[in-house]
Design goal:
Number of strands: 23
Strand content: 25-35%
Helix content: 25-40%
CATH class of the largest domain: Alpha Beta
Number of domains: 2
CATH architecture of the largest domain: 4-Layer Sandwich
CATH topology of the largest domain: Glutamine Phosphoribosylpyrophosphate, subunit 1, domain 1
Length: 448
């Protein structure tokens, strides 16, 4: 899971401060590293590092990034690969001149591509998929960066949104099924690309449209043009974007994420009605769903858990140890709200079970009479191969336990999941979503 950003603007626009704000708006998509590459003439200026955007950048570092064109990235790496060498964007000098690239997503054929490139003499400095795409581009015989990108796209399998930049153009590309998101925006003096509309509106720009699945968008001095790289009718947008990944104020296919999550909660209340005293969310991504559940069920909604805003998202922490420690730091119950109450605890998903078991324990310690766990998604039973770092079924609690076994493991009085049919109904996405993490129905080839 990562967030990408790109901007191509008039020379009067300073890209670095706007890029910094856009990355800040995408911080929820990745908290392990952040970086910006800005062009000034034929020169690339770059700054990246490990940590949050606010930790990587300051006024001094932004001042060293002059120019009006930029790409940026916030993200986290695959398990065991979290070091600054893998932080993005990546940049290099090629026959097209200086070039930089950033990626949200993951290639399922990375092993094949990596071995082939190494066999033909490539020197790889990272373990990122971005470097593989950059290598494929510069090794293309085509005469322009965009044609080289077209060549590279033919080799890629997986879910991805790519932004790439040379001094005279910005290029964006989305995978043929549209698994990962990418949005085009307009700002005074130029255009931009970003993973979510929240990044566009946060800098005062206007969302124009979503980049279509399989579309290549080119932005240069002549404006915006595009071409369709793959002619496919099928779509497979990641349903987990609706449930957890996207920010509540973002728009997906013309629908606000907050309102979609409220509808998920309403459907869940109709499927799983309970006789309880209060509904509380696990903040923040389940707040909207809990509101919808409470409204539909006619049960009081309360903020029974306080979130420490200075602790990141525990799901995307790189190790199990930091996730467990992060739960206690991040969440704390309000005793007077939950004491003696029959509580519905609503969360967006149960992936590894770390957060859920700890939160239920804290609620019981705070005096909750009963804790009923209600989940705004189906059981997470299969690993994601498209950008979410859950590499093995062994890490997924629902893949190796029945629902009753999961209930006992997290120590809930009852456990209720949203059905896959209910989820698709709530997001109006039947037939055009990737729900492989719940169903095992992968929309592309996957390893093994």
């Amino acid at each position: 899971m990562s967030g990408v950003f790109g901007m191509f603007a008039d020379p009067s626009v300073s890209a670095a401060p706007l890029g910094y704000m856009a990355l800040y708006a995408l911080q929820h998509r990745g908290q392990e590293s952040a970086g910006l590459v800005v062009t000034e003439g034929d020169v690339l200026h770059a700054h990246k590092g490990m940590g949050l955007t606010s930790e990587v950048f300051d006024d001094a570092s932004l001042a060293k990034l002059p120019g009006s064109h930029a790409i940026g990235h916030v993200g986290y790496s695959r398990s065991g690969e979290n070091h600054v060498t893998n932080a993005e964007p990546l940049w290099a000098t090629s026959r097209f001149g200086p070039a930089a690239i950033a990626l949200d997503g993951s290639l399922t054929n990375r092993k094949v591509l990596r071995e082939r490139l190494l066999d033909t003499g490539a020197l790889l400095q990272t373990t990122t998929d971005s470097e593989l795409i950059l290598q494929l581009m510069v090794r293309s015989r085509k005469e322009s960066p965009e044609e080289a990108m077209v060549d590279a796209a033919k080799e890629l399998i997986g879910g991805y949104a790519v932004v790439a930049m040379t001094p005279d153009r910005l290029v964006g590309m989305r995978d043929p099924l549209g698994i990962r998101p990418l949005v085009l925006g307009r700002l005074e003096g130029g255009h931009m690309l970003a993973s979510e509309t929240a990044a566009i509106t946060s800098i005062g720009a206007e969302p124009v449209r979503e980049v279509e699945p399989g579309e290549l968008v080119i932005i240069d001095r002549n404006g915006v043009r595009s071409r369709r790289l793959f002619d496919r009718d099928r779509r497979a947008f990641c349903v987990f974007e609706y449930i957890y990944l996207a920010r509540q104020d973002s728009e997906i296919e013309g629908h606000n994420v907050h309102l979609i999550r409220k509808e998920i909660g309403r459907v869940l209340a109709r499927e799983r009605p309970l006789d309880v005293d209060v509904v509380i969310p696990t903040p923040d991504s389940s707040v909207s769903s809990a509101m919808g559940y409470a409204e539909e069920a006619g049960i009081p909604y309360e903020m029974g858990l306080v979130k420490n805003r200075y602790v990141g998202r525990t799901f995307i922490q790189p190790t199990q140890a930091t996730r467990q420690f992060g739960v206690r730091l991040k969440l704390h119950p309000i005793r007077t709200v939950v004491k003696g109450k029959r509580v519905v605890l609503l969360d967006d998903s149960i992936v590894r079970g770390t957060t859920t078991a700890n939160v239920i324990r804290m609620l019981r310690e705070a005096g909750a009479k009963e804790v009923h766990m209600v989940v705004a998604s189906p059981p997470f039973t299969h690993p994601c191969h498209y950008g979410i770092d859950v590499p093995t079924p062994a890490e997924l609690i629902a893949s190796r336990r029945t629902i009753e076994e999961v209930r006992r493991h997290i120590d809930a009085d009852s456990l209720h999941y949203l059905s896959l049919e209910g989820l698709q109904k709530a997001v109006e996405g039947n037939g055009r979503l990737c729900h492989a993490c719940f169903s095992g129905d992968y929309p592309t080839e996957v390893p093994g």
